[in-house]
Structure formats: C-alpha cells, structure tokens
Amino acid sequence: MAGVLAKEPRRKDIWLKISCSVHSYIASDEKGCLETIALSYHHLPLHLKDCFLYLGGFLEDSQIYSPLLICLWMAEGFIQEDGSRSLEEIAKGYLMDLVDRNLLIVEKWYISGDVELCKVHDLVRQLCVEKGKEERFFLKIDWPPSNHHCEIVTTHKQRRVFTNQEIDIMTLSHPPTPSIRSFLCYHRKTTLTDNISKFCSSFALLRVLSLQKCILIDFPPGLALLVHLRFLEIWLSLFPPSICNLWNLQTLVVRTSSSSMVLPSNISNLVNLRHLASNTNLYLPSIGKPMKLEVITNVVLGNGVDNFQKCFPGIKDLTSILYSDEENDFEVLCYLQVLMLVGSGYSRRRSVEPELLRGEQNLGKNHIIIRFPETLKVLTLVRCGLPWSNMTIIQSLPNLEFLVIKDNGFEGTLWETGEGQFQQLKALRLEELNIKKWEVSSTNFPHLERLEVSNCIDLEEIPLELGDISTLEFIVVLNCGASLLESLQKIRDEQDDAGNYELKIKVDGRNIPSCVPNHDH
C-alpha cells in the first residue's frame, strides 16, 4: 500500500478511493495478497505496465541483471522518448519507479546508485504471469509444450513466448505464427539447430531472441535471416561473420566457454548496435568504419586506445582487459563516463580465471601510464597493480563521482592523499588491497557520501578525518582487522561528541550504534 500511496497525489478523495478498494482486512492467504498486489498494478501509469508484466517471463527466484533487462525493454519498444534524456536513462527511471513501488527487490547496487541485480517476489511474479496471460501479453510455457502447442497456434495476437522447458521447435512453430516478436528460452536443450529453416520462416518477424543457456557449437546460418532482431543473446564457440547481417541489432550478448573471441572484421555492418557484451575477452579486428557502439564489455586493448577510439568514437561505458605494455591514453575517449579496467597482474583472490592471468603482467611494475578523460564519472580498477603515486592522475578528475579499487587495483602499503583532492567524489570502495596506512587531509573528499572497505586485512585504520566530512552518510566495513575496527569506534565516539548522530557505521553487517543523549528529566 505504501508503494501505491507514495505515487498518488496527497488528496483525501484519491486516498479514500484507494482505501475503499482494499479489503477491510487482508487475509494472510495467497488470494488476499494477490489482490493487494493487483491494486498496485492497476495504479501503475501506462508506460510502466508493460515493463512490469515483462518481469513474469523470468525464472522464479532468479536474479535479473538490470542492464540486460533495460536492453530488453528498449528492444521491445517499451521506453518512451522524452527528447532530453537517452533511452537508457529513461529506462533506469522506470526501473527505480518499480523499486519505489515495492514491485522489484534490489539484490545488489552499483556503487553509482544504479541497480545491478534485482528479483521479483514470488507473489508479484505470479501476478505478472496471470495478468500477462489474461491480457495476452505473453505466453509462459512451464510445461511440456507438445500438450499445449495449440495455445500458441490459436493465439493470433500472441507477441511473446517465454519458456524454461525443453522445446521442440517443429512442434512450436507449426503452423507458422508470424505475430510472435519475442522468444526467450531458459532451457539448455532445443532442436533449434536441426530445424533452423522452419524456425526462421515461422518467426520471421522476431525482434527479441534469447537463447542464453542453449549451447550451440556453430552459429546456425539461418539465424542471419532474422533481420528484424533488435536483441540477440546466444551461446557460441566462435563469433561468425554472418551475425553481422543482422543490421537492426541494438544489443548483442555472446556467451562462450572459450577463453577469448575475435570480433569479425565486418562487425561495422551492425550500424544500429549500441550494446555489445560477452563473458570472455573480445579481440578487435581492423574495422573499416566507425561504429555507434556506446557500451562494450571485456574488450582487449592490445593496440592502444587510439585505435579503439577510431572504431568506437562515441563509447560511453567500457570494460577493458589490459594486456598491453603500451601507454594507454583514455583521454581521447571524450564521451566516456563509465570505465572498468581489468589488468592481468597478481590477484589476491584464489579463484581467478586463468585466462585473465596470462603473462602475470603488472601495469604498475611495467611503468604503464594511464590517463583518463575529464568526462569520467565512474571508474573501477581491478588487478592493475598501479602504485599509489599514480593516484594523482585520478584524484584531480573534475567529474569523477564513484571510484572502486579492488583486487590489487593499486599496490603498495601507503596511500597519501594530497591536499584538496577528489572534489566531486560521492562514493569510494576499497576491496582486497594490501594497503596498511591511509593518510588524508581535511580538504579531501568534500562531497563523499559513502565509504566501503572490504577484505583489506592489513589496513590499520580508517582516517579519523573522514568522520568530519559533513556529507558522509555511510561507512561500511567487511572482513577487516581489529585495529581498523577500533578506529571506527573512535570515529563513532568523536561524531557522537560533535552531535553527528546521522552517520551510519556498519561492520560485518552490524551497526555501530550512536549514543544519542537522553534529554528526558
């Protein structure tokens, strides 16, 4: 109810109308709960209803990767342009609106405050499924389809099919159902490769195809005929050139068991591609013309950033694997806002993918100089092994708001933060570093709101000066040493003495409470 009322005008007549719609007493049984959730659905604005119902297509209790969900929403045409923001930003607003209405549960946040992982409560998902079927929004196949394929055949207005069952494509696609625009399969086995021609002719107008768990040895050539695809998620061993015939693609997600994959030289044919993601290292070919790509993950910059910039001049969000000994000047990426750099140096973690440790290169020991564009807002450094002296390049970035240093992103036992640095930083996360001492001045981090420190066993203390930052709201510490915990208690005591009871300090999931004075007489 709170989620419903929070989005309605504070007018008595509206609230009374909502009140009359609710049972005077909501029973604890499932039906009563579903009716309450249905009330939230009915009060959703139109632009959110499709986004909400779409959640019913995901597996029960599954974690949903929000960037992927947003790409699906965009491919489906759910996001309404407003002329001033990108579709991604608008979609993030939709997502947060569902969170604020308690219709989505956040499992994990990015340090930037965006949702990384979310899930749907079982009852909320049940409502999505029921309403989705009732409104013919999608068909959810949770049973062997051979007994119910007639439902697909006779549902001429059906546009989406979700399934977690082993699918017989011949059964599913006979007779042809051209109305279907989206097909998402969460089962490992299909007969897709055996009947690809039938599949393509039956679902010729597909806009969304997700086969995320269906491992295909080779890319079925017939899939290249699905030229209306906006979203493709597929598991392959090689990246075939024929994928590049799908010129309408906006999002391409390629999963593989291979340690690396080479992009085809004709990838520039994907003129509408904005998002390219993979779970392996992607090597760039020589690309004939620039692309409009905005987001790419796990790309290997073996030939320096200049060549990359020529291929993808408008890149905004980049995850890069660094193996090169060359200087990497990211300043040329003048639209870049989010950057994750993954080096191939020593990892403090025991379970690191072997392919990411190839050569055991350490960018710091190899004297690699990395420069960043002033547009950068979010920076994550992993296994780069940079010396803390190189932090001077980062701490003066004028727009940097979120910084993550993890798994030996920087190496060395002493970090001395210079005067007046990190003027715009809002959140800082230090994770799995060998740092022992951290020295700051009172002019550092004037806008810091959140500090997270985890698995920094050797770090002796959190600087007391950080507690005096007026904007600081949270200090979160996990699995650190005893002396560091003592410093947190000192910060707590000092801030209590100064009357700052708003600062929240959490250690290993437990709060260090404020000693708020009792003024009762």
UniProtKB/TrEMBL annotation:
Q: Which residue range or ranges hold the Disease resistance protein winged helix domain?
A: 58-127
GO biological processes: defense response
Q: Which GO terms describe its molecular function?
A: ATP binding
- Highest taxon of the source? Eukaryota
Name any one Pfam family assigned in the record. WHD_DRP
Classification via InterPro entries: LRR_dom_sf, LRR_R13L4/SHOC2-like, WH-like_DNA-bd_sf, WHD_DRP
Q: Which UniProt keywords apply?
A: ATP-binding, Leucine-rich repeat, Nucleotide-binding, Plant defense, Repeat
Q: State whether keyword tRNA-binding applies.
A: no
Q: Does the keyword ATP-binding apply?
A: yes
Disease resistance R13L4/SHOC-2-like LRR domain location, by residue?
A: 181-301
Q: Which PANTHER family match?
A: TUBULIN-SPECIFIC CHAPERONE E, UBIQUITIN-LIKE DOMAIN-CONTAINING PROTEIN
Write out the similarity annotation.
Belongs to the disease resistance NB-LRR family.
Q: What name goes with this protein?
A: NB-ARC domain-containing protein
The organism of origin for this protein: Lactuca saligna (Willowleaf lettuce)
